UniProtKB/TrEMBL annotation:
Transmembrane segments: none annotated. Residues 11-54, 86-129 form the LysM domain. PROSITE patterns: LYSM, TRANSGLYCOSYLASE. Belongs to the transglycosylase Slt family. This is LysM repeat protein. InterPro entries: LysM, LysM_dom_sf, Lysozyme-like_dom_sf, Transglyc_AS, Transglycosylase_SLT_dom_1. It holds the Pfam family LysM.
Length: 286
């Protein structure tokens, strides 16, 4: 969590279509004059998706540090696999025939290796291409030699790999999970603002970002907050699958259904993140 001077944190808000400066001032209990001064506004005019500073929050009001300091180190579940495979994420223009030609394998082999019932594939599907030996890793665990079109999310996502590793090490969470969530959420686009209010690399809702004390528009803060949040979710549920589901649906829904909610969007989200983790063929770095 990045701190401002004097041990204070900034509270941010993303302007919605129906917002006015007066309405925002009432919502957060601050004066219009304070908002204008804090955001260097020359008038009351604001625009949709504008990021406004609301107020500074004293460090004493934050209870996150104590919570996170008590979390115990953990290990990702699941045993090691005897075999390792070259993996590929299906792009919109891909066909199984085209993929077979690209990697020099036959369609029958791809169908058998991936338990496909036909040659139909879909965007973002994770395909096994061929088995690889331990001394010829498909992806370098150091990220330094990764080929852009082979790593999940492409070069736009790859650029945040170093920050993700650092955040994962800092909060002792699996870097492959954090990276996969980032790919599913934004594909590495730090400027993404989704229709449901998700902001930045990790698509934080403004309420969650404020709770974590991070500015979701700043990539490094977004990744740091996501790693910390992921650690908190794992600490609560002691299960990485539930932590991933909770990142998408919120912890209340996990408790309500006592597991992954029967919601198609959340189930697809979990499946995608787990598939991406398997496709990231490197030992986890912590």
């Amino acid at each position: 969590m990045k701190k401002s001077e004097k041990g204070k944190f900034q509270l941010y808000y993303i302007v919605k279509p129906s917002d006015t400066l007066w309405g925002i001032s009432k919502k957060f209990g601050v004066s219009i004059r304070q908002l204008k001064k804090l955001n260097n506004l020359s008038s009351d005019q604001i625009f949709v998706d504008q990021v406004l500073k609301i107020q500074e929050i004293s460090e004493e009001k934050q209870n996150l540090n104590e919570t996170f300091n008590e979390m115990k180190p953990d290990q990702i579940s699941g045993g090691t696999q005897a075999k390792k495979f070259q993996m590929y994420i299906v792009n919109p223009s891909d066909t199984l025939w085209g993929i077979s030609k690209k990697f020099g394998v036959n369609i029958r082999q791809l169908i058998k290796l991936n338990n496909l019932s036909s040659d139909q594939i879909f965007v973002d599907q994770v395909l096994k291409i061929q088995e690889i030996s331990e001394d010829e890793p498909f992806l370098s665990e150091t990220f330094s030699e990764l080929i852009p079109d082979q790593i999940l999310g492409g070069p736009q996502a790859k650029r945040w790999a170093k920050n993700i590793i650092e955040a994962a090490q800092k909060y002792e969470v699996p870097s492959k999970i954090l990276y996969s969530i980032m790919v599913v959420e934004s594909r590495g686009n730090p400027n993404l603002v989704s229709a449901d209010g998700g902001i930045g690399l990790m698509q934080f809702q403004i309420e969650t970002a404020n709770f974590l004390g991070v500015n979701p528009c700043i990539p490094e803060e977004s990744l740091d907050g996501a790693a910390r949040y992921l650690k908190a979710l794992f600490s609560e549920f002691n299960d990485w699958t539930l932590a991933i589901a909770s990142y998408n649906a919120g912890p209340d829904k996990i408790k309500k259904y006592n597991g992954v909610p029967p919601l198609e969007v959340t189930q697809n989200y979990v499946n995608n993140v787990i598939s991406y983790c398997k496709a990231l063929n490197w030992p986890d770095i912590r």
